[in-house]
Amino acid sequence: MSRALIIGAGGVAGAAAHKCCQNHEVFTDIMIASRTKSKCDKLKESCEEYKKKVGSGTNIETAEVDADSVPQLTELIKSYKPDIVINLALPYQDLSIMDACLETGVDYLDTANYEPEDTAKFEYKWQWAYRERFKEKGITAVLGSGFDPGVTGVFSAYALKHEFDEINYIDILDCNGGDHGYPFATNFNPEINIREVSAKGSYWENGGWVETEPMEIKRSYDFDGVGVRDMYLLHHEELESLALNIKGIKRIRFFMTFGESYLTHLKCLENVGMTSIKPIMFEGREIVPLQFLKAVLPDPASLGPRTVGKTNIGCIFTGKKDGKDKTYYLYNVCDHRECYNEVGSQAVSYTTGVPAMIGAAMVLTGKWKKPGVYNVEEFDPDPFMDALNKFGLPWTENRSPKLVD
Ligand code: NDP
């Protein structure tokens, strides 16, 4: 019997809310609260239909909240009395929601680390700074419980627990082989997505960061369920926490696939200044070009019915077991159309929303309940791995994968 407050009503929140209804023994009550209440109500309608299919009795309420406002959040939390707040708004809201959780003594979970709106630089330092205060208050914060970050961290903890004595190298490969039929669209929030891919790349090696130009390092990989795709090295937030938490690690890299058309459009938008986050004056008012671009691009939540193909996201580990060299690849293949038919969202939202629900269930059932602020790889991976199989993200092992050079 638990109550969860979901903040946000976009693509990821949509998948998570449906999955909370599926896991109705844990989530007896949920509230969907976001800036635009009509989106919460629409999502509730879809969840009500889904509940009939899965035989769920989860009670759903909706509310309007500005998650930048700690007083508004605090008031909502005090009136709804959730056992956990699942933050599926944007990374900019992480700290205000954590502040409200601290004030009300409620557990917290998110899928993306904080970044200030005016500097496209995401790192954990702002959220890790809450550790002592969460500990003192006796509440748990789980950071980054989506797929990447999220499942990639759980995969790493699982590999270390069961397969290796020591992991030396991790390559995280994120392949989206889906096609939505638009010349250019992003699979999740365009502002966050474009900030991520137009930033400099970097990877962790021998105790420090190696920086690259954006898209400088390119490789090809043959993905199970998708086929051969070009992928590019990016900085990604879980590199920072895994470098600390996976002992013995010498190098961690993150690669994401992009099609040629996506990259050509992005280059053009960059060249004309549309991806800039520096405010400019336009017809007497200040606008941020990237936010304007977001307004004219397709809403990621609308891509669901159009997207076909599969995603394949996973980690290739190289290390040692019983004194011998070993490689091990753990990944999930997810089908866009199947996700849409099940919960009304495409696979990128699904692969993020399902782990958000699972992470919250881990806290609510006491399996991941420990006061403080933690990344997912700091908890026992086993119950989470079981839940992935049960709730729609089954994983596959390969003990002789092709390595990335
Ligand atoms: P969307 O843009 O589809 O949804 C964001 C939602 O947050 C919208 O409903 C939006 O409301 C709401 N919101 C934004 N600002 C506020 C505010 N101030 N107060 C209240 N609500 C607000 O994004 P996604 O669903 O695609 O992504 C959600 C999160 O998931 C992001 O943080 C993203 O970075 C993360 N993510 C993580 C991944 C992972 O694997 N770990 C992968 C993909 C995404 P409105 O509709 O009014 O704008």
Automatic annotation (TrEMBL):
Where is the Saccharopine dehydrogenase-like C-terminal domain positioned along the sequence?
Answer: 146-392
> What name does this protein carry?
Saccharopine dehydrogenase family protein
InterPro entries on file: NAD(P)-bd_dom_sf, Sacchrp_dh-like_C, Sacchrp_dh_NADP-bd
Q: Which PANTHER family match?
A: CARBOXYNORSPERMIDINE SYNTHASE
| Domain Saccharopine dehydrogenase NADP binding stretches | 5-142
Q: Which Pfam families match?
A: Sacchrp_dh_C, Sacchrp_dh_NADP
